């Protein structure tokens, strides 16, 4: 009945990659460094997005308050990946208020736009809390290939350590070449234990072994990696549901958080990804990565409006401290000029 608990003959036995015994002084001090989320740091990065640059140029020339300005705002929202549905809703409100002569100048229009965007994000600004009642707190990470999922796990490990939590990692991305090794390297850097088998091992088996080990060793948190998959691959998506069922055999409430990692440069395809993963495993939180560089920045609003799922973190760079707790005020302030 429970054949999915059994390891395949070709799978290597689960092994614990012990924390590095001799971390360098630099690594040790970095591990102990508290991650600081500041609006100024967020603005410095998000100010480079298409959203921020487009609106910065639009309002830097002191535009005239007229229907043409409304058209330019609409075009800017669409080009920044806010999406047609959200854009139409925002513009309908701005046009109504414009006709009612509620705006005295272009700055008043900008303030109204800022309020509309903030209203979309405030309901999904829900920080990730680790309750003492769930021990270990099981965090399952999912997402398509290339979104930065394994790297996000390493950054989360650093963050949780800085907050005083003990944790373990499960190397469940057994299909991608070197993915297990990549997570083991993150474990060594952060002095965190990693449960791993080998490449092509059964991911559900890895997750099962890891939760048993984390429970036995009284860890606060278990972060389980999973194989990246396209949201259109039905058979692979169903495997995520299998992992969730297996974890539930040990702890009926596990996983306590299903964290979907989304590439911020993906655009409106991120909405399709979120829908598919949410339908398969019941996503409980989002991480939006790669919001530096070529990201447009607007897809966050489309995700917030469509799914109303908590946005836990945003990724603003390669360094561990560049994974920031989501702050809607800082986000909107970084995108729109004052």
Can you give a write-up of this model?
This protein is an alpha/beta fold and 338 residues long. It is 47% helix and 12% strand. It has helices at residues 25-32, 39-46, 50-60, 67-79, 84-99, 106-121, 149-162, 179-190, 203-216, 234-250, 269-281, 299-307, 328-335, and strands at residues 15-17, 137-142, 167-170, 193-196, 221-224, 257-263, 285-289, 311-315, 323-325. It has a nine-stranded mixed β-sheet, sandwiched between helices. α3 (50-60) runs antiparallel to α4 (67-79), α4 (67-79) runs antiparallel to α5 and α10 packs across α11 (269-281). It is elongated and about 65 Å long. Residues 1-14 and 17-35 have low confidence and may be disordered.
Q: Characteristics of this structure?
A:
338 residues; alpha/beta; nine-stranded mixed β-sheet; 13 helices
Strand content bin: 5-15%
What Rg, in angstroms, do the CA atoms define?
A: 22 Å
List unreliable stretches of 5+ residues: 1-14, 17-35
The count of helical stretches stands at 13
Task: Work out the number of β strands.
Answer: 9
Form type: elongated
* Straight-line N-to-C gap: 62 Å
The helix fraction, in percent, is 40-55%
Mean pLDDT over all positions = 86
Strand order of the largest sheet: 1-4-3-5-2-6-7-8-9
Class from helix and strand fractions:
alpha/beta
Order of helices and strands: EHHHHHHEHEHEHEHEHEHEEH
Q: For the report, how would you describe the main beta sheet?
A: 9 strands, mixed
């Amino acid at each position: 009945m429970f054949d999915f608990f059994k390891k395949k003959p070709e799978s290597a036995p689960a092994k614990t990659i012990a924390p590095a015994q001799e971390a360098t002084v630099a690594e040790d001090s970095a591990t102990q460094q508290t991650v600081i989320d500041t609006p100024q740091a967020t603005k410095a990065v998000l100010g480079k997005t298409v959203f921020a640059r487009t609106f910065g140029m639009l309002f830097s020339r002191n535009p005239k308050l007229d229907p043409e300005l409304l058209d330019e705002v609409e075009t800017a929202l669409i080009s920044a990946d806010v999406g047609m549905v959200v854009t139409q809703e925002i513009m309908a409100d701005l046009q109504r208020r414009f006709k009612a002569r509620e705006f005295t100048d272009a700055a008043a229009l900008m303030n109204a736009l800022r309020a509309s965007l903030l209203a979309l994000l405030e309901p999904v600004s829900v920080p990730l809390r680790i309750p003492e009642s769930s021990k270990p707190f099981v965090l399952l990470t999912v997402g398509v290939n290339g979104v930065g999922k394994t790297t996000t796990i390493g950054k989360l490990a650093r963050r949780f350590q800085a907050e005083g939590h003990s944790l373990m990692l499960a190397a469940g991305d057994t299909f991608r070449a070197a993915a297990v090794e990549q997570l083991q390297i993150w474990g060594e850097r952060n002095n965190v234990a990693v449960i791993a088998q080998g490449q092509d091992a059964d991911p559900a088996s890895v997750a099962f072994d890891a939760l048993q080990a984390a429970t036995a060793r009284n860890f606060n948190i278990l972060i389980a990696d999973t194989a990246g998959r396209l949201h259109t691959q039905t058979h692979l998506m169903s495997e995520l549901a299998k992992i969730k069922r297996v974890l539930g055999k040990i702890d009926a409430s596990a996983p306590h958080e299903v964290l979907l990692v989304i590439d911020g440069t993906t655009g409106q395809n991120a909405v399709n990804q979120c829908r598919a993963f949410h339908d398969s495993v019941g996503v409980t939180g989002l991480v939006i990565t790669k919001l530096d560089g070529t990201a447009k920045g607007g897809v966050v609003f489309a995700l917030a409006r469509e799914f109303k799922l908590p946005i836990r973190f945003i990724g603003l760079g390669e360094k561990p401290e560049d994974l920031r707790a989501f702050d809607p005020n800082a986000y909107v302030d970084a995108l729109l000029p004052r």
